[in-house]
Sequence to fold (776 residues):
Amino acid sequence: MLTLAQQVAPEPAAPLPDHAEQHECYRWHTEGDDRGTSQPEGTLNVITTRDIAERLGISVSTVGRALADDARISEETKFRVRQTASEMGYVGNRAARMMRGASSNVVALVIPDIRNSFYSTIAHELSKNMAAEGFQLMLSETDDDRMVELRHLRELSANRVAGVIIVPTARPHSESVKLLRAVPHLQLLRRHPSLGSQWFGVDDREALHRATAHLVALGHTRIAYLGGPEELPTGAERLRGFRAALEEGGLADDAGRAELGPPSSVHHGREAVRRLLQEPAAPTALVLGSIQLTLGVLEELSAQGVKVPGELSLVGFGDEPGFSWWGPGLTTIGLPIQEMATSCALWLLRRLKNGPENDGPYTSVSPGSLVLRGSTAPPDGKASSKSS
Amino acid sequence: MLTLAQQVAPEPAAPLPDHAEQHECYRWHTEGDDRGTSQPEGTLNVITTRDIAERLGISVSTVGRALADDARISEETKFRVRQTASEMGYVGNRAARMMRGASSNVVALVIPDIRNSFYSTIAHELSKNMAAEGFQLMLSETDDDRMVELRHLRELSANRVAGVIIVPTARPHSESVKLLRAVPHLQLLRRHPSLGSQWFGVDDREALHRATAHLVALGHTRIAYLGGPEELPTGAERLRGFRAALEEGGLADDAGRAELGPPSSVHHGREAVRRLLQEPAAPTALVLGSIQLTLGVLEELSAQGVKVPGELSLVGFGDEPGFSWWGPGLTTIGLPIQEMATSCALWLLRRLKNGPENDGPYTSVSPGSLVLRGSTAPPDGKASSKSS
DNA sequence: ACCTGTTGTGCTAACGTTAGCATTGCTGGA
DNA sequence: TCCAGCAATGCTAACGTTAGCACAACAGGT
Fold:
């Protein structure tokens, strides 16, 4: 069978190595019989307004104004300029324009990890809304490391991004705070007081409160919570919601068990749930506090063949594609990320258009919802309501 | 119970509306008793080298050289400049530097949709590798629309990005081709001849060939393929692999049935598999040609309660978290996206460092692998090998 | 005393674009 | 005939940074 590489280059067929053995196979073609351009790429001399002006025998100003559709330029000149610009492949230089005081058309999204579907959804909504208004999106991943965050913010500042939407690390560096102060910005999901009071988030406490209360109502008395560390604002809120629900349910202090750790580690989710199940008085119910942890827990429970909700009732976090078909269907905490992201985008766009006017403290809290499926039941093992 | 908003603003508690009813609740605080800075944000006058020079009574050149750690500047001056720069919160203006011929430190990733985990994995790897070398990542989503793609490429060109990694649409606009020609670029996964011969992709044909051959070997004689349109290079290759395997298996022409459609529509996956199962001579096996279609199919089969592999053998595409715990475990086509993305990043970095030298046609083809789980079996219904 | 080299710094131009002001040629009213 | 007014365009400076060249001060060798 022919492979793609062989189709592309009609050289004598050097058979490809075994697929199972290596991951990549490189091919340098020595001759350029390829359909692609033969010009050295990336070396194209860039066209400026001056080039156009010289070609047409007019001044740079006129060219600039014609391209900007200035009213003072005759239609005929405009037409000739535009035509020539197009012919010569002119592309305006935004860096030069920026130096004349214009602001950039780039906004940045600073998040822990784009692979988390939470954040990729946000990135998508943001990108879509921003692109519609002519803005480009810059993506910076912090990996929840404040120094990485700082490095990114330095770069973003140097690039003079017009705005920043950030899911901050637990305790941003003081220089990060300074840098953000010079740019319209918005905190998302997590909130750190030093970064100002523009914040869009979810009511984490309420969300976990409802999830936990649901388990309490079913009659569970040994409930565990597995979530992010308390130093993260979201982690702290979620833990509070969990504890509050236990307290309100009149459960003893030792009824609840909280296991905190890195929230974006699938691996940690697997480890933690394994430990929990091996304990002498293992919990009969488990609430989760992050998507990645949920993914890990689901993997581990599947692997171990734990019966849900028979042996363990489970409330997940977030609502990923696989959650609905996992085991009996995963009861989970659903969050309106898409709507939130859109709101963020619109807020930032308005802020960028209107300037700092009316730019007082601003906060938007979205509530979560409890999506009831089959993974929760009373502790005796009888399945409860099952609906999607 | 208190909500976050109330904690943030100690105003008389206006009770939050019912959570189930609305998605967001806005709060404008009229007074700034917030901990955040009281400076008008985003209005900070930006510091330039000139400001530093004036403060120290030296020339801009000296400041510039001190900051660039030029050997000709005395250590003492360097120290004073750096200190003052830090004090004043100086952040170099990359736009100005770019005008002096320096290239930008931004590379762009142009993809259909970041929500596809395929692409978010790529974005992550790219971002990580690029950030390590001081590059920032710009994200552009095309939604598989060539005009959107064009608009993005225009913006990217205006911003003078240093490089572009692109998953092109089926038939890029001729202006897109021109624009890309001026920038070091690299095609990923999909390949369009007009965009040159730098390409990293997977052996789509081989991957689908193996998946289909696996089903043929099990004894299936009515096999369906559900994948992207033939106009996409990946779509065409996958279809070819599917057909080739059928042919080699000695099956009649009508044994195979190909259903083509939008590859990134989960909804279309659901619809299509529903139609397939209702047909008079419904297929006994199904191979999929995209992640999103696979997600749709899994949802639909779960919802309908179709027995897999009893009633239908299934080979998915990609390897998402949920695939291993879906039903009996999904046999699927695994692709080394992570490794591919890393290779892309390294290639582009090398290209950016070394310039166009040695920049001939280049192609890298990664093979896929068949991950055997429980969703495939002989047509009589007996389960085959089950391993993860 | 002169030349040479070194060290540290300043001056100036240039990158591509745009905004303010000046200039040219023309039309129409006094 | 002269000038106001307008339309169309040109000239120049400025944005912040950097590279090339010039310059000043001083040391060491002849």
